[in-house]
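Reviewer 2 asked us to include a model.

Predict the structure of this chain.
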Amino acid sequence: MAGRRPTMSDIARRVGVSRVAVSYALNGRPGVSDDLRERVREVAAELGFTAHRAAVAMHGASAGVVGLALRRTSAALRSEVFRRQFIAGLQTELYSRGCGLALQFVAGPDEEIAIYRRWHAERRVDGVILTDLRADDPRPAAALELGLPAVVAGGAGPLPGLANLSTDEPAAAAKITGYLAALGHRRIARVSGPADLAHTRARTEALAAGPLEVETVAADSTGEAAAQATRRILSARRRPTAIVYDNDLMALAALGVAAEMHVPVPAGVSILAWEDSPLCQLVHPALTVLRRDIADYGARTARLLFEWLDGRPPRSVRAPNAVLVVRDSTAPPAP
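Predicted model (structure tokens):
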């Protein structure tokens, strides 16, 4: 084959199967066994085979790309440790399969669904990752209507017809309230992300069902909004003894506000973040957090999509639970 590009026919002759079987194996279509699929991919790699993108589109085969649309600006993404680590985990898994990531920033659900329709019509992606599920979210139904394989990252449970990597928010909330209650806290505040997000609602409901009196203040997940909410909370005549923040960025901003208002942490108020990041360990005092492997979470999401593309039915699984990491920002409340 010196001097020419290896073809599917070359792979078929080497493996001893039909060219159609090779196409099915390489393009993630059902109809071939897992063992054959793996053998075909091994031979393709040995021969240096790469699919010609125009031919792929013409025959309706795999695009070798997964789509991810985010309702954020690129500037906001730079400050979000969770989203960056999630994408890093996705990319690692995609790279291992020779796939790319189509990343698009959108303003709202209508624009996002329009992008899915265009991607699907032009066969630009094999499937999509849905994040930040909301109440009455139209995106799952749109993906089902298009017949576009989709994995929801962070849903609360099974979603018929879609794959889902769910998170156990009640278990996480129980770790927070159980720990703070054991320290002696009775009345706490929480600064949340957008109130219409499904995981925000799940956290709110779980905290309300716990042993503590909890006041939830909705913000937008940014440091600026968290700073404003923290000033109001710390200025109240009846101040809570602890504040929980839905992400690390908001908790870090709260530390700055507490210092500005001369409220010592944790002697004057305990602060806890629902997500971890390297900065949470570098600030003073270091932040108590719920920690989970976010890159692994992204990789698991990608693997669920690949299962589907490989011919297995979509399924819902539960991500590993977060671990409470106690640092210096929490302590028993002052007498």
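The first helix runs from residue 8 to 15. Confidence is low (pLDDT under 50) at residues 52-59. We have added this to the supplementary material.
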